[in-house]
Amino acid sequence: MDTAMEAGSEASRVRVEGVWKVFGRRAAEARDMAEAGAGREEIREAVGSVVAVRDVTFQVSPGETFVVMGLSGSGKSTLVRCVSHLIEPTEGTVEVCGTELTQADSATLRDLRRRKMAMVFQHFGLFPHRTVVDNVAYGLEVQGIDRRERQERARELLETVGLEGWGDHHPQQLSGGMQQRVGLARALAVDPEVLFFDEPFSALDPLIRRDMQDELIELQMRLRRTLVFITHDFVEALKLADRIAIMNDGAFVQVGTPVEILTDPADDYVRAFTQDAPVVKVLQACSVMRPLEGTEVDHGWPKVSETTPLEAVLPHLLGSTDPVLVCDEQEAPVGLLHGDEVAGVISPDR
Amino acid sequence: MTAVDGVRPGAGGLRAAWRGGPARFALVLGGMILLVAAFRILTDFGVFPESWNIGLADPIDRARRWLITNQNSHWLYTVFLNPLTDTMDWAIRRLESLLKWLPWYCYPLFTGLGLWWTRGRIAGALGLAGVTLIGVLGLWNEAFATLALMGVAVLVSMAIGIPLGIAAWHSDAVARITRPTLDTMQTMPGFVYLIPFVLLFGFGRVPAMISTVIFALAPVVRLTEVGLRTVPQSTVEASEMFGATERQTLRLVRLPQARPAIFAGMNQTTMLAMSMVVIAAFIGAGGLGQVVLQAMRSINVGKASEAGIAIVVMAIILDRFSTGVATADPGDDLPAIRWLAVVTAVGAVAGGLAGLNEFPKALGWRFAPYVNSLTDWARDNLYDIGGSGIGTGPFSDFVTTQLVIPLRELLSSGIPWPAMIGIGVVLGLWARGPRLAVGIGAALAAIGLLGMWELSMDTLAQVLLAVAATLAVGVPVGIMSSHNDLLRTALRPVLDFFQTIPSFVLLVPVITLFHVGRIPGIIASVVYALPAAVHYTDLGLRRVPTETHEAAESFGATRAQRLRQVEMPLAAPELMVAVNQVIMLILAMVVIAGLVGGGGLGLEAVRGLRRSDAVGRGFEAGIAIVLLAAILDRLTRAVADRLRPPAAV
Q1: Minimum distance, in Å, between the CA of residue A220 and any CA atom of chain B
Q2: Do B243 and A121 touch (CB under 8 A)?
Q3: Tens of pLDDT along B204-232?
Q4: Which of A69, B275, B394, B636 has the fewest beta carbons closer than 10 A?
Q5: How far apart are CA A219 and CA A237, in angstroms?
């Protein structure tokens, strides 16, 4: 939690504080029961309403990927809709790019959505009556940009997501993975600072899902946007996140970096996820390494890149007692991996 | 063993059996028989007493006389109704004269091109031939009259219906009003809409148009609303997330996605308008309906067939075109169609200026004489084949004396009226609950108080017989078609055809064979309702999931067992919907059959439309028809709901 606070102390892109969402009547009563520690079922039976999000607070810094991970019914989809203000939170404040949404009038909110944020949906939310290029251009059309310009921009973005030549098809003629690329291109078309992803890859089959995750990581390295990413897939969360929030029964159970979650799970609920995670495949060198910070290095030590998965690092560590050097794209050393530390992360009784 | 011992059919099991299906229904039935017996033995009630007639006819006749005398002086007319009448009449006239100004050849050509564009080359060629046929039969002017009246009615329906549908989607308050209103409007036979407007406007095209608009409005409103409601939420959210205003989302996302539904609504509205415009001949709408009506009155079957065929051709063309518009994809033919359309348009204007508007007489050909001689032959040879006592005549007589009259007697006097109301109440209680029971009781009592008891029971008897006959044929055919894709494919166009043609036209071939009387009415309604019975039975059985079939099969169930124990129970609600549809279609037809001597409420309503001194009685008959329709509709729908398995929690 400390790191979360530190990350937010800078000018944060998304700031969420004390957000509650209660569906149904008698919201205040339901909220009080929840504060007193009552579970969701208990509250539903007593007052008939559902507490979907309870007292959630977090901040996301510029360029950070913040992943909210939870099982179905944990309230994660409701949370992302509260943050993007597709639904009104019952209580609490939400700030995006410095604008307080809870107090904004509809014109301000609309303006913010047109320029600063965008969302990618679980079932793509593509418009079946529009061609792919008109789908991508939709955000620009809503802003009133003329046809030629918006089409040109849309075609550029289709190229970015690898769909050049598909612009004149209709979305339903494309495969699921391609459809979600259209969804991504459509979100990127308005050049948003903050992107919301509501389980964008869960409707795709596993191989396509992995490709899409890799492409998103690559895209994010280039574009450095602020991402709020919702998923029910713990492995996906580990792979994409700078920080992960584990959500259960409407509340955050733990917030931390992937390594923190793996090495120091807050409770049995979180531990249950970490136990089955293929840690060595998912974690990359950069997320486990100790930053150099002036430490002397020996250039004879084995070198790996930042994005190398741990399983590819292990042979180096097992073969000798030397640490492994982690280098950035310019081959400059940025961190060190020590055998005992890595062992701490991957051991089953961490 | 202990496990088996544990499952004893306790009180709970008995209560479940008691609540559910057959046992309870048998009890209800037994109770009703006891009720009738008790009334018959202990009292001397019979037909609903005539002295209780509240005499609604007199004030209505007085109102009618008052309206006629004040038509040119009272503010209701001078300020409101007359300008409205004039405007609508003007619009119809303008459209008609425009239609007549254009040269005759542009109609077959434009129709052919339109159908080519929406449905392909063969449909285009058939459309061209069909329109030419109307001209060949010498019904050009009548067809224009029908088309103009219908065109204006459809335009007005769209202009009202689409915004109303949007309003009903947008506001739950509006939907709460429109939905039950539309439901009620759709259960009423089209015919009864004519009565109040004749009262208010007299005879002519304007009351015809207004009743057509009201009759045809429901589908476009309903489907616009449904279309908008079923737009996937995710696309709406996506639009909102891009900062679209509500208007932008409606225009760019919701309406385009609702388009297929709205088009379907427009198609249904057009078809309803078509059938109503034909029926509206009863109140002087003119056009093709008028030709059929007059020919039928003078038993000129040949003439009636010609006009009937013209109506059917028009209906089919309109249906094919309007169902095809939403999905039109002419592919490679598009340039040719465009080019030809431009040429035809130029030719149309040129021909119009040159005054080539009359369909050339040289192309005329009539088949009426042949049909008439066929009718004569049928009368001489089929009515009573060789004096053997076999033929349509004896068949009619047999059905009339052995089935129709006994059933009518049973319903109107055999069952004492309080017992009849009691039966209605008990059925209502069984099917849904106290509210429906009270409603049915009140409606039956109101029929009695209107002095329409005997006529209503006459109509009810005809309806019940027709329903029985329709289901006896339709359900087995539906079952066969659900098991046999080949049969289904073969039946499809036949069913489509019968569902497209306006009800009124069906009377023509039937009176060819059966003359006038109750039997042709009943037979026409059976023919009219049969497609619905087959279609819904087939649909219901096909909705039974494959996995359920396979499960039953894996337990070694025979085909008959599967049908009886699995498919029929699962399809039961759907079958009840079939019964509901069949009843409503038959009631609508039986009422129209009043024209060909069907008797009952229909005859009374027809008389009311024809003779100014019978308007009051006609009005009463109209109300009785509406009440009867409401009772039968609610009751069958309640039973359908009962049969539905409990919804998932």
Answers
A1: 21
A2: no
A3: 888 999 999 999 999 999 999 999 999 99
A4: B394
A5: 17
A338 three-class SS: coil
B residues 175..234 contacting A (CB < 8 A): 232, 234
Specify the 3-state DSSP secondary structure of A117.
Answer: strand
3-state SS, residue A168? coil
* pLDDT above 60 (res B11): no
ipTM of this predicted structure: 0.80
Task: Indicate yes or no: CB of B235 within 8 angstroms of CB of A127.
Answer: yes
Say yes or no: B248 contacts chain A, CB-CB below 8 A.
yes
Min Cα separation A140/chain B (Å)? 8
Rounded-to-integer distance, Cα B317 and Cα B312, Å: 8
- Which of B228, B230, B235 is the best mutation test for A, with the most CBs of A within 10 A? B235
Sort B129 into a burial class: Cβ within 10 Å, 0-12 / 13-18 / 19+.
middle
- How many CB atoms are closer than 10 A to CB B87? 11
Residue of B234, B242, B259 lying closest to A142 (CB–CB): B242
Q: Which residue from B374, B371, B190 is spatially nearest to B272, judged by alpha carbons?
A: B190
Question: Which tens digit of pLDDT belongs to each residue from A30-76?
Answer: 888 888 888 888 888 888 888 899 899 999 999 999 999 998 888 89
Q: What is the DSSP letter of A165?
A: T
Residues 54-113, chain A: which have Cβ within 8 Å of B? 81, 84, 86, 109-113
Assess contact for A72 and A232: CB atoms under 8 A: yes
Show the low-confidence residues of chain A (pLDDT under 70). Answer: 1-10, 348-350
Q: Chain B contact for A127, CB < 8 A?
A: yes
From CA B607, how far away is CA B455, in angstroms rounded?
A: 13
CA separation for the pair B443, B440 (Å, rounded): 5
CA dihedral of residues B274, B276, B278, B281 (deg, nearest 10): -150
Q: Which of B242, B252, B259 sits opposite A190 (nearest CB)?
A: B242
